[in-house]
Design goal:
The protein is α/β, with parallel strands linked by helices. It is 46% helix and 14% strand. It is globular, with a radius of gyration of 22 Å. The chain binds adenine (ADE).
């Protein structure tokens, strides 16, 4: 048993192990990588500090890295996303030091990052770039040992690209999010389904007939809008990018500025990655009873400070993930999951079947980094296309789906330019 860790309660471990095994059944691609890693040990001796949501799916990724020979530690990437039974099982059954307690305060969250960095990583594995950011801001002494990192999510990739642009990034990072087998599936179908799942688990609200406002029309928001529409909601999309807004219009959604949507919406979900997308002026015109929540990485998209200032007294806990803010003008506005990722705060995050591909990218990204770090610059890289396509091939095979191959004639046709009409 590992000596150093911080989890809620080791007694939760048996339940966690059952759920980790359940998720594993739906992660065939990661399983095949784990089997190969067991034989080949491509990560032998590699110290990995991971900062990811501590879920059943992440546990399977940790086991895969460990099978490859890595020495792994894990810290939570969000104070509200940790599944305490999984954290306990990783310590008790896998001997992986975990620093994650559901509901931890901000100070504990950062102490946990520090604990993960004390592992002196050769590689970082981030979801939101907090680990890389802390490493560069506070633990520069450790940077010399780091060959590179991987980053799971859109928000983290944006932060890292900003670091690289400024010349601040000091090692290469692979943007897992940019793989096609990540964002087309995890962001769209994973966030789509799990966000709706979080809203329904928190509220048991009927979506049919409700005005459902989605802020943003990136891959996550596209998934949320399409799933809400599928349940009969009347969906409004807000955007700042004309091309995305046009796409939302052509996908059949109403598009309007948030200040207009705010007046008519029943349920609001933000998934933009930006700050104060629902701001004081929007909260001021919302209907009484409106429900607001966030599915973006950080809890900055809803201006909760303004909402608290507009309220009388502290918000009232209506249910485990619902707080009612009583406003001075008599209205009440409900916030779900403290404005943090609703799919992980009130539900179990993305289903294993999509995390299978995201985490196959993580595992193969780590292997790619080990093999290639000396050829890479301190920049943000996308995983090579052949790895991305191989993950899709493996996923299709696991689903029993076959596809066509190009004939020699077709291959030739695609590689020439003389033949036209
Ligand atoms: N991000 C969203 N869903 C997740 C999950 N199930 N596990 C890890 N990270 C996630």
């Amino acid at each position: 048993m590992v000596k150093e860790f911080d989890v809620a309660n080791l007694d939760f471990a048996p339940g966690g192990k059952l759920r980790i095994d359940w998720a594993e059944q739906d992660m065939p691609v990661l399983r095949s990588i784990r089997e190969r890693f067991e034989r080949e040990k491509p990560l032998k001796g590699l110290r990995v500090s991971a900062c990811l949501h501590v879920t059943t799916e992440t546990a399977n990724l940790m086991a895969t890295l460990q099978a490859g020979g890595a020495d792994v530690v894990l810290a939570a990437s969000n104070p509200l996303s940790t599944q305490d039974d999984v954290a306990a099982s990783l310590v008790a059954h896998y001997e992986i030091p975990v620093y994650a307690v559901r509901g931890e305060d901000n100070q504990t969250y950062f102490n946990h990052l520090e604990a993960a960095l004390n592992h002196r990583p050769h590689m970082t594995m981030d979801d939101g770039a907090d680990l890389v950011s802390e490493l560069h801001k506070k633990r520069e002494d450790l940077i010399g040992d780091v060959m590179g990192g991987t980053e799971e999510t859109t928000t983290g990739v944006i932060r890292l690209r900003a670091m690289a642009k400024e010349g601040a990034l000091r090692f290469p990072v692979i943007a897992i999010n940019d793989s096609q087998t990540k964002h087309f599936f995890d962001n769209r179908y994973g966030t789509g389904q799990s966000t709706i799942d979080g809203i329904i688990r928190a509220t048991n609200i009927l979506l049919a007939g409700r005005v459902f406002v989605v802020a943003g029309y990136g891959w996550c928001s596209r998934g949320i809008a399409s799933r809400a529409h599928g349940l009969g909601a009347r969906v409004i999309v807000t955007e700042i990018e004309p091309v995305k807004a046009l796409e939302a219009v052509m996908d059949g959604f109403q598009v309007m500025p948030m200040i207009e949507a705010a007046k008519v919406g029943d349920i609001f979900v933000t998934a933009t990655g930006d700050i104060n997308v629902i701001d004081r002026r929007h909260l001021e015109v919302m209907k009484s009873g409106a429900v607001v929540c966030n599915s973006g990485h950080f809890n900055v998209e809803i201006n909760l400070t303004a909402l608290a200032e507009m309220s009388v007294g502290a918000p009232k806990l209506v249910g485990p993930h619902i707080e009612g803010y009583n406003l001075k003008d008599g209205r009440i506005i409900y916030v779900l999951g403290e404005g943090r990722l609703i799919n992980l705060a009130a539900a179990a995050g993305h289903p294993a079947s999509v995390m299978d591909m995201s985490f196959a990218n993580q595992a193969l990204g780590a292997e790619f980094m080990v093999r290639n770090y000396d050829k890479l610059q301190s920049q943000v890289y996308t995983i090579p296309e052949d790895i991305d396509r191989e993950i899709a091939r493996l996923k299709l095979a696991s689903m029993g789906v076959q596809i066509d191959n190009l004939t020699a004639e077709q291959e030739h046709y695609l590689n020439q330019w003389q033949e036209g009409t």
